């Protein structure tokens, strides 16, 4: 069954490849009999460097803007100039408004004035959690964007329970969403429960892990064979059944169609996927942004509030 779906444009750059991906996804929408079928939500970011291509493909589709949903994100280097960063994204996308604007990461960066090459964007440093602008200050500036009518809602990305606890007491608008890495190896159950309690929609990026881990998993392959489906369909269906929003990415037209043809997993099949992370060595991030020092983009796991050890591995819970 086809249903309203989201297409994630994660990954820096992409150029014409991103344009082609959007065109393929939009054609699935265009040729459907239902205005709600196919891909209607496109997720990009200033940091990906492909907002222009996303906007071009959307305009070329001929689909009315009101039938589509566009998400983009504030880049780390614009935490001290939120309005300017937002206006640049709006210009790149070349649309009248943005549906959802996210604070991409809690950590900001700024030109390093101690270096003579500080005018060069390459010479930047990551702000410490207590340095201004903090993510609380940055989010407050994002709240002001709502008054312009150019953005419908705001939210965050890559936030933990720790950083949300630091943010929420100081803001007027509860983030509409928290977009984080989530898949069977990193289900983030505690964070999901916390977001549900706070009325924050939990959105899973990289729901397939950006690796072949799930496609080669014997249990998932057996479930896929049972339903005459693909391993990706099994994993995405698990994500939807646990009441998360999944935003997969694919350049292949058939996989784009498969990814929005979801299954209803039987309880025993759902349970198998749900417990994959309990196997030895399986509870971990599957992304490559982890540094050998146990940090991501300049902040330690402790500063981010991520319960991880080096390499993005989640330690076993103490009994």
From TrEMBL:
Superkingdom as given in the UniProt entry: Eukaryota
One Pfam family from the record: Aldo_ket_red
This protein's record includes keyword Oxidoreductase: yes
Record-linked PROSITE patterns: ALDOKETO_REDUCTASE_2
Segments forming domain NADP-dependent oxidoreductase: 31-276
GO molecular function: oxidoreductase activity, acting on the CH-OH group of donors, NAD or NADP as acceptor
Keyword Oxidoreductase: yes
The entry's keywords: Oxidoreductase
Protein name, per record: NADP-dependent oxidoreductase domain-containing protein
């Amino acid at each position: 069954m086809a249903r309203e779906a989201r297409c994630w444009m994660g990954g820096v750059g992409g150029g014409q490849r991103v344009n082609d991906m959007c065109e393929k996804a939009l054609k699935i929408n265009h040729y459907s009999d239902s205005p709600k079928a196919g891909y209607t939500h496109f997720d990009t970011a200033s940091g990906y460097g492909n907002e222009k291509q996303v906007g071009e493909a959307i305009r070329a589709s001929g689909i009315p803007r009101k039938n589509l949903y566009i998400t983009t994100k504030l880049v780390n280097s614009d935490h001290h100039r939120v309005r300017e960063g937002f206006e640049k994204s709006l210009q790149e996308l070349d649309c009248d408004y943005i549906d959802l604007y996210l604070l991409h990461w809690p950590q900001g960066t700024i030109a390093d004035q101690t270096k003579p090459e500080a005018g060069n964007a390459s010479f930047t440093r990551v702000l410490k959690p207590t340095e201004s602008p903090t993510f609380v200050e940055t989010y407050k500036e994002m709240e002001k964007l709502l008054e312009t009518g150019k953005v419908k809602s705001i939210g965050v990305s890559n936030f933990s329970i720790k950083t949300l606890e630091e943010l929420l007491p100081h803001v007027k608008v509860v983030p509409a969403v928290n977009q984080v890495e989530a898949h069977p190896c990193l289900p983030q159950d505690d964070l999901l429960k916390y977001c549900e309690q706070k009325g924050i929609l939990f959105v899973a990026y990289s729901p397939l892990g950006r690796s072949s881990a799930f496609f080669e998993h014997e249990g998932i392959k057996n479930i896929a064979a049972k339903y005459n489906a693909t391993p990706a369909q099994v994993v995405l269906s698990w994500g939807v059944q646990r009441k998360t929003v999944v935003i997969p990415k694919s350049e292949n037209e058939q996989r784009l169609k498969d990814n929005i043809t979801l299954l209803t997993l039987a309880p025993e099949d759902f349970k198998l996927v749900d417990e994959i992370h309990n196997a030895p060595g399986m509870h971990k991030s599957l992304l490559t942004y982890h540094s050998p020092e146990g940090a991501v983009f300049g902040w330690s796991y402790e500063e981010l509030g991520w319960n991880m050890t080096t390499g993005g591995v989640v330690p076993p819970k103490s009994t």
